[in-house]
Design goal:
The protein has 284 residues and is an alpha/beta fold. The chain is built from eight helices and seven strands, in the order E-H-E-H-E-H-E-H-E-H-E-H-H-E-H. The protein starts with 7 loop residues before the first strand and ends with a helix.
Amino acid sequence: MKEFKDKVAVITGAASGIGYALAKRCAQEGMKVILADIDKKYLRRAEKRMNKIGATFIIVVTNVSKVSDIEILAKKTLEEYGAVHLLFNNAGIGNTKYVWNYSLKDWEWQLGVCLWGVIHGVRVFAPIMLKQDTECHIINTASMEGLISGSGPGGGVYGVSKHGVVSLTETLRNDLDLKKESKLKVSVLCPGLVQTRILYGDIHRPEDLQNDPDKSVEDTRGDVYVARFRDVFGETSMMTPQEVADITFQGIKEEKLYIITHKDPLMKRMVKERFDEILKAFEE
Ligand SMILES: NC(=O)c1ccc[n+]([C@@H]2O[C@H](COP(=O)([O-])OP(=O)(O)OC[C@H]3O[C@@H](n4cnc5c(N)ncnc54)[C@H](O)[C@@H]3O)[C@@H](O)[C@H]2O)c1
């Protein structure tokens, strides 16, 4: 897609961070925007900011891990604007522990948002976009963690969800290629570290998925994770959400499957080392 004016964008996790930056960029492109998020407080803040820039938008309180919420999101989108041209499956949370310390509730919550949220988005919206038969694009947010394993301490469940998002997007691209005349394109967004509140996502954990406080293990807190990540990658690897949004739009225009935001040589080396090890196993 190269023309965005008057088109419709749906963004999950749009109340803050990368999601809000994408919403702002969509509005600046003259798009009608649907901001979906679970966080009512941050949605109110986003609403004020979008009003200030004169955006055309609606807000839909959405928990992406519930398929019924995504179905309502699609219904409201079509009722309000009649179509959907960009879908950003972006909502996500961080929850950093050593892999053996995650509780079942940790797994359920994280996979519910970061993986099932994207699955629901694709299952509900892709048929609508295909039927529409207009130029459109789905952007699934994974992470550098979806291309490498264990880049930082305690990326266990997160990494599993993000590898899933990469695989889902690759498969979706392959399936769409088989339908040769499809006007639906897909990308997987794989950022490195971005200045957002991702590692403090525990505030969104539903009541029924709370850990028993006596058994809860917090062995790699968010701030410790960031400090260690910076030790490995350095300060310059921290990007602003706005920079990520701008690179994402460029990726959409160029129909890139992988949108890599951080051109960090160290991250590139880690991706290469992972694949080198896999390829080496073919020779052994
Ligand atoms: N910040 C980073 O360093 C980084 C790096 C790579 C990938 N990502 C990915 O980028 C995406 C956006 O995260 P961010 O960094 O902007 O963090 P963020 O915390 O600022 O934004 C995430 C948004 O998702 C919302 N959310 C959480 N649970 C939800 C749910 N169940 N349903 C709907 N919305 C929900 C939150 O309220 C929040 O507004 C995530 O998928 C994240 O994994 C972030």
